[in-house]
Write a structure and sequence with these properties.
Blueprint lengths: L9 H12 L1 H4 L23 H8 L3 H36 L6
Length: about 100
């Protein structure tokens, strides 16, 4: 899926139609007229650059996000496992008593 920096919507189409129909009268229209506020030519379009272009061009962004999610899940599982081991060690030390003798 190739993403483009410009997405057409019904609002954009209505703006173009309104701009085309009132283009001749826009030079004579008063500033408070009901003409279009902006046309599609007035909207700046920024092209993707660098890493954004690479990640979005070949659908790599979802793969990167999935890898990051797997890494975070792994870190959380490791923390839970370590916490359980520490809890078990603390419980064993508490059962032995202050001398360390069971």
């Amino acid at each position: 899926m190739l993403l483009t920096p410009f997405h057409s919507t019904d609002y954009d189409v209505a703006l173009v139609a309104q701009a085309d129909s009132s283009q001749a009268s826009s030079a004579l229209a008063a500033p408070d007229s009901t003409g279009p506020i902006a046309t599609l030519d007035d909207i700046p379009v920024q092209e993707f650059e660098g890493l954004d272009r690479i990640m979005l061009a070949e659908d790599r962004l979802p793969v990167v996000l999935a890898v990051v999610l797997v890494v975070w899940v792994g870190v959380l599982l490791m923390l839970v496992r370590t916490d359980r081991r520490l809890s078990r060690l603390e419980r064993d030390l508490a059962e032995r008593g202050p001398d360390g003798i069971a």
